[in-house]
Amino acid sequence: MQEPQQDHLIGTTVDGRYQVRSRLAKGGMSTVYLATDKRLERDVALKVLHPHLANDQTFLERLSREAKAAASLSHPHVVGVLDQGEDGHIAYLVMEYVKGHTLRDVLNEQGALPPRLALALIDPVVEGLAAAHRSGLIHRDIKPENVLIADDGRIKVGDFGLARAVTATTSTGALIGTVAYLAPELVLGKAADARSDIYAAGIMLYEMLTGQQPYSGESPIQVAYQHVNSAVGHPSAVVPGLAQDLDELVQWSTSVDAENRPVDGTAFLSELRHVRRTLSDEQLDHRAEGSVHGAFPAPGVEGSGGQATEAIPSAVSPTEFISRQSNPTTVMAASNAGPGQTRMVVPGVDEDLRQPGKRELKRIERQDAKDRARAAATPTRPLSEGNPRRRGVIWAIVILVIAILAGSAGWFFGMGPGSPGTVPDVKNKTVAEAQQLLRTAGFQSEPQDVFDDDIQSGFAVGTKPESGSQVRKFQPITLFVSKGAELFALPGLAGGTLDDAKNALNAAQMALGNVTQAFDDKVPAGVVISQDPAKGTEVRHGTPVALVVSKGPQPIPVPDVRGQTQDAAVKALQDAGLKAVIAPETVNDKTVPKGSIVSQSPANGNLVKGDAVTLTVSKGPKMVKVPNFIGKQARDARKQLEDLGFDVKVNEILGGFFGTVRDQNPVNTEVPEGSLVTLTVV
Questions:
Q1: Rounded Cα distance, 166 and 98, in Å
Q2: Domain extents for the chain?
Q3: Which end of the chain has fewer CB atoms at under 10 Å, N or C?
Q4: Top CATH class, 623-681
Q5: 422 - beta bridge partners?
Q6: Least confident of 76-80, 289-293, 296-300, 385-389
Q7: What is the pLDDT of residues 459-502, one digit of tens each?
Q8: Which residues pair with 447 in a beta bridge?
């Protein structure tokens, strides 16, 4: 909802293009404004990043790549990314503006939803995820606040690209996620993939069916612990009477082990739709006791219209960092969120939940070394009774051996190869410099070539274990050396439609560049003529590819050749790129000379190259015999001559008193139609 406090950006124009009208929402990473794109005269959602992100050049470079990848994803259930840029100290994303409400509004208003409505709402969300997964995009922050429901019923998933950019940029290895929907592998610090999005969608489905989230606790760390160590319960345990198929669908999508979940959105969507088809009407319309009826409409489901709000994720679950490298005892929760919905800082959560702390590991390793030394120095059977002096010598030897072993162990684990060391940061160093840094720190390294989009070929990308880790010096260190960006051959796009080209670029994880149009006599309208870079060119993922799309043959205005000679008319049409066709029949025309063009078809408009224009040639005027009207009344003579198509001129003598034709020229001869006949009248 719009916040009342004054904002210095409201009323200003960002980057000379986006006029900021009002603030819609504020979260942990950005503030969202309603703005008008003055160039295209349309409303947009302008996401302005907070200064700590806008001032990070590495983040901005990653954000640019992620925005291009997200912008290449064109799908009716994904909020479109329209633009990205910087204006001074302002870094921003421009997204499609969806007016309506969010899935969070629906859940707050209705609580538990009947299965028919829940499945209708989750279906387009999973369809949008499926399209993103096919294009290699992972959302990483699926939650009801990011599901936008437009006033006309369209459902879209928002905020693609931003979570990945922030996650990849944080130097502490932090990740983005709302704890209520966070997949176990993300809690444990593992990489996100399509199955992480499926887990979050499954948690959302559970919440839609039951009206509550599966896990809650007094602190965010308790909720995170449950994601890792508990299985999501059956929705029917909360709402008795729900179909067993819904229980199985939720548990399949929220399995703690990612290997047991659907592999991506396409697999989950197929099963979700199968379940919806096989459930009876009674099962689909089953309602929890006390649930609210029809507060918000959904596609294909009856319901009255609630008051529309702007469909921008609110600050119920603001996006914050979940760090993995701070003190394991620190838990910092956002002050404006409730249990189970809080964005949190959970440092060292994988160590807290799954293994002893580093200090405990070191204590155990030292104790093991001492125990081994003590066992090696202890006799396996009692020394025989004998000479006291001999026993004294033996005991002296034993004590000496123990001392040597203890000293050796102390040296090995204190200063030698077994002593702990900190792996240095070698990023962007040459191989020689990186290996020298590692040797100085007491480590031996083995180079391994890897692709990297950001590091120049031949320079160090990092190490395994990563820099800053405390490890024993005898442990091998893998030094990752950049081979430069991995290059991929561009697909051929010429000959297909623009939509075909977009799909091919999405599949190849490339971006759509400038699209221009050109006339082409051989390529139909809407078909791609050429691309730049060309087919087969090896480029990075996300490279924009410019396209030239045909507008079809260029239209040619039809020249008017009427009245021209036949040869001149034919040449004029040929020079224009058209074909002249002479009609087989010629016609008489009293105004057009013989051999000239009387008419043409078409006479005007546009044709394309090679089209035909039919020409009709004149035979000249028709020959008509002039009757003799001498001695007859001039009035009758004039009328009959004009009926025959002649022009008549009357010369009166003595005023033409008698009205009689005294003389006529011509007379009794054939002349061209329309000729002048002169009558002399007395």
A1: 24
A2: 13-96, 99-352, 358-414, 420-482, 488-550, 555-620, 623-681
A3: N
A4: alpha beta
A5: 470
A6: 296-300
A7: 998 998 888 888 877 688 899 999 888 888 999 999 999 999 99
A8: 479
Q: How confident is the model at residue 290 (pLDDT cuts 50, 70, 90)?
A: low
Note the pLDDT tens digit of each residue in 545-566. Answer: 999 999 999 899 999 999 999 9
pLDDT in tens, 230-265: 999 999 999 999 999 999 999 999 999 999 999 999
User: DSSP letter string over 567-614?
Assistant: HHHHHHHHHTT-EEEE-S--EE-SSS-TTBEEEEES-SSEEETT-EEE
Name the residue with tokens 């409505």.
Answer: 117
Q: Cα(76)–Cα(177) distance, rounded to whole angstroms?
A: 25
Alpha helices in 286-442 (DSSP H): 349-354, 358-377, 388-414, 431-440
For strands 42-49 and 81-87, give the pairing: unpaired
Backbone torsions φ then ψ of 588, nearest 5 degrees: -80, 145
CATH topology of domain 555-620: Trypsin Inhibitor V; Chain A (3.30.10)
Radius of gyration of the chain, Cα coordinates, nearest whole angstrom: 44
* Nearest residue to 521 (alpha-carbon basis) of 570, 471, 556, 568: 556
Fold (CATH) for 13-96: Phosphorylase Kinase; domain 1 (3.30.200)
Q: Return the bridge partners of 30, or none.
A: 49
Residue 214 has which token pair? 């599966």
Judge whether 99-352 and 420-482 match in fold: no
Q: Are residues 420 and 471 in contact, defined by beta-carbon separation less than 8 angstroms? A: yes
Mean pLDDT of the chain: 80
Residue 299 has a pLDDT of 47
Amino acid at 311: A
The pLDDT score that the predictor gives to residue 391 is: 64
End-to-end CA distance of the chain: 103
pTM value surpassing 0.70: no
H or E stretch including 184?
A: helix 184-187
Query: Do residues 582 and 596 touch, judged by C-beta distance below 8 A?
Result: no
The pLDDT assigned to 77 comes to 94
- Candidate CATH numbers 3.40.50.300, 3.30.10.20, 3.40.50.1970, 3.40.1260.10; the one for domain 420-482: 3.30.10.20
Query: 30 is written with which tokens?
Result: 């950005």
Contact predicate 647/602, CB 8 Å: no
Cis peptide before 666 (omega within 30 of 0): yes
Cβ(321)–Cβ(170) below 8 Å: yes
The pLDDT value recorded for residue 239 is 96
Provide, for the chain, the percentages of residues in helix, strand and coil under a 3-state DSSP scheme, each rounded to the nearest 5.
35, 25, 45
CATH architecture of residue range(s) 488-550: 2-Layer Sandwich (3.30)
Check whether the bond before 533 is cis (ω within 30° of 0): yes
- How many angstroms separate the CA atoms of 573 and 561, rounded? 8
pLDDT of res. 334: 31
In whole angstroms, give the CA distance from residue 375 to residue 369. 10
Q: In this structure, how many other beta carbons lie within 10 angstroms of the beta carbon of residue 105? A: 23
Helical axes 265-278 vs 194-210, angle rounded to 10°: 30
According to the model, what pLDDT value does residue 203 have?
A: 97
Give the DSSP letter of residue 472.
Answer: E
DSSP for residue 305: P
Q: Are 472 and 417 in contact (CB under 8 A)?
A: yes
* Residue pLDDT, tens place only, 614-670: 999 998 888 888 999 988 998 888 999 988 888 899 998 877 778 888 898 999 898
CA distances 111 to 310, 441, 555, Å, are 20, 58, 61
**Distance separating alpha carbons of residues 89 and 80, to the nearest angstrom:** 24
- Catalytic residue set: 141
CATH 1.10.510.10 fits 99-352, yes or no: yes
